[in-house]
Amino acid sequence: MMDSEERERTYQFFLEEVSELLQVLETGLLTIQEDCNPAKIHDLMRAAHSLKGGAATVGLNSIETIAHRLETIFKALYVETEIDTELETLLLEAYDCLRSPLEQLITTGSFDSETALVVAESTLTRIETRLGDALQETDHYLPSSSDLGVDLVESLFEVDVTQGIEHLTEIVAHPQDYNLATELRSQAEVFLAFAEMLNLPGFGEIATETIAALDASPEAAKTIANLALEDFLAAREQVLAGDRNSGGNPSSALLAFSQKPQLKVVENSTTTSLAIIEPEQPKIAAETNSSSLVLVPSNSSLIPFEASAEPSEPEKETIDPPTKPKPTANLKIRVDSQRLEKINNFVGELVINRNSQILQQEQLTTILNKLQNRLEQFQRLTPQFQESSERISLAPNHNNQNNIISSGDFDALEMERYGQVYSLTQELVEETMQFEEAIDDLVLLKRQSDDTIKQQQKTLSQLRTELMWARMLPLKQVLASFPRTLRDLSVKYQKPVKLNMIGTEVLVDKGILAKLHDPLLHLIRNAFDHGIEAPSLRFQQGKPELGQIDIDAYHQGNQTLIEIKDDGGGLDLEKIARKAIERGWLSVTQLATINQEELLDLIFKTGFSTAEQISELSGRGVGLDVVRSQLEEIKGEVTVKSIPGKGTTFTLSLPLTQTIASMLVCRVDSSAIAIPATNVREVILPQAEQIIRSGNQRMLSWREQLLPVYRLGDLLEYRYPAFVGSRNQALKNIASSQQETLPLLVISQGKQDFILEIEGLSQEQELVIKPWTGKMKTPNYIYGCAVLGDGGLIPAVAPTALLAYVREQNSSNQNHQKDSTTQAASEEKRLVPTALAVDDSAMMRRILTHTLEKIGYRVLTAKDGWEALELLNQSPQIQLIISDLEMPKLNGLELLHRLRQNSRLAQIPVVLLTSRSSAKHRALAMTLGANAYLTKPYIEQEFLAELRKILGNNQKHPLEVQCKSASHQFLSSSIA
């Protein structure tokens, strides 16, 4: 009887094994008609047997009954080898009678056992009736190893012997948890039985000598266990390497323990006697720290031999035999996915901290360089100062009449005078030298810190990689049900189709895997219905009547690719074109200029179908647009290729991981976005003459291709300014391009390439991508927030999805109108005004931001005049400046003076808001060009009324401008 805890653990073990055993059954049954061999039947029988035994252990009597009857049916197939479609279908139905309640048990924790037995009874009885006499012969037929196509010796040593050795390894490693002698004896007896069954005398001799050694020296059980384990390990390696005659041999060290005591003549200086001498036992000698062991009966009058202090030469050779490393089992454990997700989040936090460290290290480098420069300047001035101080110190002191030197005893040139100035100078020189040494130490420490961060970065990268693979599951968990689905379709519609699957062990992120089933199933059904022709038509075309669908999965770079290919007739381009014209997606004129790839892409549009009539498979209004949308949810892509008469291939591209990625941070106007580095094939700094214009579209010649150039800022709806001074230190590394032309990114989208123009670019860096949360729906091309080193957030943009989005928006227009439409939309977005609030008080900046946002402004903030100038250079869309008067570094009047000296910035209205109310300050501000001079604290309505006067009646009021970008609305509350 098991206690409740043990029963629960056994129950969980059973449930974990169920899915694998069911998969063995389904896979075997799906191919049993075409390939019914004893080895396959044996696998089916063992799977059913395991389910029967497991169900009996945990008390699932109905499952035990069904599995037992199914096991007997499989035994009958050893005799009944003629399996037609009818019997195959019955066997699959019997399998379903076992699968359905088990899957219900796994999903809900229970099932109706009576119903399961009733449902199974009818199917199992029909099969048993069909097999008839074959069932009666099952007890008289046992397949041989050759029938099963297996090497029984290898099979036993790979599984049973290996398990026994792993058990020995465990008890040797933790002898305190076991009765060592009993466990070792039991395992040796099992191995002895294997040796006799397999006719391996050497392996049997190891087991025999182990038992004999335990009988002779039970107190040395631990040593004997170590020796036996080494011998069994060596024997296993020999057998798996091909030895079928011996199976190893016991070592001399083990044999030494198994030998019986012998009588031996013992001599000393006074007498000769007999003593019982044990064989040499190296381990015992070592453990008892004695050089020999003599046993004499207690009632004997013999004088025992006493070991001399210096043993003889043979005795000196008593040493421990070399020990082999203990074997380590490749154990597998099950880890809850939520726990893995938590670990993954922790790794993400470590990456964020690492990026922060790198950013701080860069800032430290900058400060250290400045410090070294200042020290060098100071060192150049120090000799001059020292020389001047010495000159002053040595000059005669005419004012001091009581000076000893000037009294006539000494000439002023005969003795140096060390006055206060000179002493301070020398002290300054010494402090400078110590300061220089401190900086050298700081430089050395910084280099060591750099090395530590690099090593940390390497280790973290390895940890991230290992964790990424730990989160993966094999693709076969999704593909497992597809052969059965296709088989049932083939039988139902009388269209024989075979499914080949390659790469079922390819690992896919668990979160992605869960969402792959429906898209893949849709494509399989689509290939069966639309792709594979009827058998008669295939025969006329010279094709085999058996159609074929292939699923091929593999990793490429940081993506997983899954190809679904059929050998059918290919996509009907004429039907696709006709349907596109009927739907109004294309005009006849456009059809003449569109390429095949663009035409094929139309099959993914909502509502597309070429089915002539509605059936279970086709014409139900659910098309390939669902496949594309489901792939986009997991940031994947689907493309299609087709060859008329040869077949169609759908390719699914999936990201390996969605948590941490190599990203390029790009400047777009005053904003910043992150783009996956894997999407960028090349970064180009072109010459002006390399850009050519075709109508409204700019083009660039790249690798013998003429690629369209899109300004990223024109494509994006996102306009939240990210360059807001010191709050985003990580963005300061993104310098604006100083070239005449802006940097270009070559983006790859399948076989189609295009170019994005940006304003600035950072180095490639690993960033944590945080998914969107909350109810705000974002455009599908923004798939998360990238976390910068200083904690700032910027949107992570999928460029291919962005371009697809823009094309979708402009699909009704002519190709040459797309660019102008995008530019017009961009100009409309730029009407949303931006104001700059400058104040050294954080509270005041927040108050001003709140006030200005009420009337529709986007607000940037700066804490002094210098920071304001930086923002003005980075953000040309600023239309209003509200500035304090008294600020550090650069005050309001100085800021105003610099603004009026710049022709572009001089046009921006400036309002000074200060606590200084004197007429003198006001007059000076207005003289320097301020548009208004207001005092704190202000009344909001009066403040806004003053702004209306300043801006004038002819300027569009900010309240009338609406921000249409969902991404802005979300990020402005999340990042600001």
UniProtKB/TrEMBL annotation:
<dbReference type="InterPro" id="IPR036890">
    <property type="entry name" value="HATPase_C_sf"/>
</dbReference>
<dbReference type="InterPro" id="IPR011006">
    <property type="entry name" value="CheY-like_superfamily"/>
</dbReference>
<dbReference type="GO" id="GO:0005737">
    <property type="term" value="C:cytoplasm"/>
</dbReference>
<dbReference type="InterPro" id="IPR002545">
    <property type="entry name" value="CheW-lke_dom"/>
</dbReference>
<keyword id="KW-0808">Transferase</keyword>
<feature type="region of interest" description="Disordered">
    <location>
        <begin position="307"/>
        <end position="330"/>
    </location>
</feature>
<feature type="modified residue" description="Phosphohistidine">
    <location>
        <position position="49"/>
    </location>
</feature>
<dbReference type="InterPro" id="IPR008207">
    <property type="entry name" value="Sig_transdc_His_kin_Hpt_dom"/>
</dbReference>
<feature type="domain" description="Histidine kinase">
    <location>
        <begin position="423"/>
        <end position="658"/>
    </location>
</feature>
<feature type="modified residue" description="4-aspartylphosphate">
    <location>
        <position position="884"/>
    </location>
</feature>
<dbReference type="InterPro" id="IPR005467">
    <property type="entry name" value="His_kinase_dom"/>
</dbReference>
<keyword id="KW-0418">Kinase</keyword>
<dbReference type="InterPro" id="IPR037006">
    <property type="entry name" value="CheA-like_homodim_sf"/>
</dbReference>
<dbReference type="InterPro" id="IPR036061">
    <property type="entry name" value="CheW-like_dom_sf"/>
</dbReference>
<protein>
    <recommendedName>
        <fullName>histidine kinase</fullName>
        <ecNumber>2.7.13.3</ecNumber>
    </recommendedName>
</protein>
<keyword id="KW-0902">Two-component regulatory system</keyword>
<feature type="domain" description="Response regulatory">
    <location>
        <begin position="834"/>
        <end position="951"/>
    </location>
</feature>
<dbReference type="InterPro" id="IPR003594">
    <property type="entry name" value="HATPase_dom"/>
</dbReference>
<dbReference type="Pfam" id="PF02518">
    <property type="entry name" value="HATPase_c"/>
</dbReference>
<dbReference type="InterPro" id="IPR051315">
    <property type="entry name" value="Bact_Chemotaxis_CheA"/>
</dbReference>
<dbReference type="Pfam" id="PF01584">
    <property type="entry name" value="CheW"/>
</dbReference>
<dbReference type="Pfam" id="PF01627">
    <property type="entry name" value="Hpt"/>
</dbReference>
<dbReference type="GO" id="GO:0006935">
    <property type="term" value="P:chemotaxis"/>
</dbReference>
<dbReference type="InterPro" id="IPR001789">
    <property type="entry name" value="Sig_transdc_resp-reg_receiver"/>
</dbReference>
<dbReference type="GO" id="GO:0000155">
    <property type="term" value="F:phosphorelay sensor kinase activity"/>
</dbReference>
<dbReference type="InterPro" id="IPR036641">
    <property type="entry name" value="HPT_dom_sf"/>
</dbReference>
<keyword id="KW-0597">Phosphoprotein</keyword>
<dbReference type="Pfam" id="PF02895">
    <property type="entry name" value="H-kinase_dim"/>
</dbReference>
<dbReference type="Pfam" id="PF00072">
    <property type="entry name" value="Response_reg"/>
</dbReference>
<feature type="domain" description="HPt">
    <location>
        <begin position="3"/>
        <end position="105"/>
    </location>
</feature>
<dbReference type="InterPro" id="IPR004105">
    <property type="entry name" value="CheA-like_dim"/>
</dbReference>
<dbReference type="InterPro" id="IPR004358">
    <property type="entry name" value="Sig_transdc_His_kin-like_C"/>
</dbReference>
<dbReference type="InterPro" id="IPR036097">
    <property type="entry name" value="HisK_dim/P_sf"/>
</dbReference>
